[in-house]
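Go through this pair.

…
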Amino acid sequence: MTLPQFGKETALIVLDVQKAIDDPKWASKNNPGYVEKIVNLLTAFRAAKLPVIHIRHDEPNPASTYHTSGAGNALKPEVAPLPGEPLIAKSVNCAFIGTELEKNLRDQGITRLIFTGVVIHNSMDASIRVAHCLGFDVILPQDATTAIDVMDAKGVRHDAQTVFDLFAAVLASEYCTLSTSQDIIRALP
């Protein structure tokens, strides 16, 4: 698929790429190179002088690897914001709920969002769906996100790749366009 040429109306969203994701609880990830793809996108967006917005999950539950006062709350250093790049904290799975994200985007005239981060079946899913409902054009580079194994209510474990493929298919059916990091980089000015 050929993407349109991107300009100042396009922002890169880096969602929940925190040290918490390296906890053994999250070890079943598919797509092991997803952070490298996010770094490539960050480098390209910065070189093109296009907006980059970082989202950090500040989990109030002390049992979570993302807990606000836990070691896992810190952003992974390779994706940390540079001066001038906004960092927005959220406390629920959706990046738009209880945050200034929508206002920040509208104030900058941003209409297209490139979502990267973790995990496709939680915060990525919730945030992409809401972004679409708010009228943003959303693109998901599939190689710049990941999933983990999911246990259903019947005790059946669904492997990370199956979870990933299902959520990508559902999101693409209505809420976003699927792409790759390389295709997105080619569409940058």
